[in-house]
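go over my protein:
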Amino acid sequence: MIEAEGGADGSCKVAIIENEIGQVGIDTAFTDDTGLYTTELFNGCVCCSIAGSLMDSLAKMEEELHPEWVILETTGLARPGDVAAQLHEYYDEDMSITIFNILDARRWLKLVPVVGTLIDDQVEAADYVLMNKIDTTDAETLDKVEAGVREKTKAKIYRISATADPEGCAKVCREILADIK
């Protein structure tokens, strides 16, 4: 569990649920030393095969930790709109859910023809779309990606580089947090 910006006293409790298709988690290596409370769900996608495990994990977190925010990091194969619908139906119909889609701007145009329906579902469900890796993508491609995304969603779209501009990324996150409140 971590105290993050946002609560009445300037902080709030945040917990993370990471969903991995396989049996090995790779993202926890990034959160192990941060003080974040992280739970991993393996061997399937929370929008279908392990939805029950998600509900159990949320109930356990709520009972033991009482987080104000839970970040659910789904696999790249998840349909976040389906996950949100399941959370409302089976867990808490009044819970506030904000969906972020972080897309690889460098590869997006190549992925659309291959997994277009999945990408469409992910982008359409999003409240915020973060176009990542803009530092490795030319301006013309970025404009094409953004135009394609705008055709599919009314979400706010941000261009970011998580590695080349972490301060800019943090600024976008603060702006989104302020917007969500």
Summary: The chain is about 45% helix and 20% strand. Residues 1-8 have pLDDT under 50 and may be disordered. The chain has two domains: 1-97, 99-181.
